[in-house]
């Protein structure tokens, strides 16, 4: 389970989380032309990244462990006339998915896991990403000051997490865009500092129950 726990995220989605910005994250848009084929959006929230790629003609599946954002994502897809599959699902059980994907997008999920769940998550990613497929990951950076928000992630932690069976192609500084909040000035204009990571799957692993 994420560090913050289910109840924390349920409370956030009872309102409107600051990371729900009504459009895809800029770091994802910037690499969109490199992403073709099928896509899994892990921790999709209300689906903006997933729907962006659905509009570009990609076959997209979005998952989130809460029902509320998935319901909103489905509603958006219907309203926009787009085809995408959205499932309520734990990202620590990806091997239950019946297909393999050419790409996985993770915009804000990796950084919510503790050490043990993070290792499990990376193992699960390996079961659904085709050999040679790519993971595009946006997470909070340890260069972001303060303690507000999720756990910070260092470059070393990223390299250690993807040391076996993966090839890290790039780790670049980025921003995790959030909505302005006059009552919360924890993050500077432009959003908290983040890492944008592109990782390719070099070997395929299918976990055995």
Name of the top-level CATH class: Alpha Beta
Mean pLDDT: 88
Helical/strand content category: alpha/beta
What is the CATH H-level superfamily?
Vaccinia Virus protein VP39
The count of strands amounts to 7
CATH fold field value: Rossmann fold
Which range best describes the helical content: under 10%, 10-25%, 25-40%, 40-55%, 55-70% or over 70%?
25-40%
What spatial form do the alpha-carbon principal axes imply?
globular
Strand content: 15-25%
Number of helices: 6
Write down the secondary-structure element order.
Answer: HHEHEHEEHEHEE
Number of domains: 1
Low-pLDDT ranges: 1-7, 9-14, 205-209
Distance between the termini: 19 Å
Level-2 CATH architecture: 3-Layer(aba) Sandwich
Main β sheet profile: 7 strands, mixed
- Strand line-up of the largest beta sheet: 3-2-1-4-5-7-6
Q: Please compute the radius of gyration using only Cα atoms.
A: 16 Å
